Amino acid sequence: MAIRSERSKPASIKDVAALANVSVPTVSRYLNSRERVSEEKRNRIANSIRLLHYRPNPIARALVSERTKLVTLLSTNTTLYGQSQTIRGVEQRAREAGYALNIGVLSGDDRSNLQQSVQSCLDQNPAGVILLNYDQVGNDAYSFLRHDIPLVLVAGDRQEDTCQISMQERQGGYELTQYLLHLGHKTVYHVAIPGGGGGYSRLAGWRSACEDAGVPAPAPIEANWDPECGRQIGRTLGESSDVTAVFAGNDEIGMGVIRGLNDVGRRVPEDVMVAGFDDHPIAKIWNPSLTTIRQDFYQAGMAAFSMVESEIQDVVSGRGRTEGWSRLVEISGKLIVRESTARTR
């Protein structure tokens, strides 16, 4: 029997039984009560499981252990505004539906550690999984998830065979850049957040808006999640008189950019206009208040849970995977104009 590759169809309990030369009920007994299986057969089954990278179906095991009311949410930095608000929405809807929510924080040091952190969460046998794909680590984690269990992806590039919430970030990036260009700027500089380079990203929207307007798109400036990084970038940008408009990948970085521009004597918005993304609560009380794209992360979290719950019900009812397991729900952002881009030039 051929050993399956990592990206091929997951091995089934029948595959394990065939390779171990035992019956399916024997493998089932091994999985649920190993002492009921002879040592010789235990060794053969264990070896087959290892060779086939077999993972027991979490829904089937959940039904046996009465754990159908557990959903796992996978995320990276849960303290960031977008992630925390999405989690809040998931928690609210899960509580209303009587589900327990397990939050797994992904480690992105390397692919091996990431795979291990994903698998450790799946080993708890959740009935469904919600993955917050707000950065590269989340995107990498997607490749380690099985698609024969209820799964919902929040944000990121479209995955056609998966239930997904689109935050319409490309559209928001396009609208924000277009707004800045319409104020008369020759171009807009973009400070990119980690992992934001996909075709559905705010960076892609910025680049597309520049192309459609026929203006040059300067090389995007990479930032991390620390606002202090934005401050350093602001200082650097402030040394160039050519910089008159900046679109920061999120509000925290945008606020850092404003502080950095001020450090080198550039005024916002008189000398440089700055816009962010997400509508962090501090954005409206910053000095100057920050123009941004408001994203409804809370609604995205509630919608994500409703989608995964629907998939779980498909499995519990015996319908299995349906067309609904590849649905796309789009949640558009809204341009919020504030003082940081006021027309004062």
Descriptive notes:
This protein is an alpha/beta fold. The protein has three domains: 42 residues, no CATH class; 141 residues, Response regulator (Rossmann fold), CATH 3.40.50.2300; 126 residues, Rossmann fold. The chain is 42% helix and 14% strand. It has twelve helices and twelve strands. A six-stranded parallel β-sheet has the order 2-1-3-4-5-11, with helices on both faces. A four-stranded parallel β-sheet has the order 7-6-8-9. α7 links the parallel β3 and β4. The longest helix is centred in the last third of the chain and has 20 residues. The N terminus is likely disordered.
Characteristic key phrases:
345 residues, alpha/beta, Rossmann fold, 3 domains, six-stranded parallel beta sheet, four-stranded parallel beta sheet, 12 helices, 14% strand, disordered N terminus
Please summarize what this structure is.
The protein is of the alpha/beta class. The strands form three sheets. It has a six-stranded parallel β-sheet with strand order 2-1-3-4-5-11, sandwiched between helices. Strand 3, helix 7 and strand 4 form a beta-alpha-beta unit.
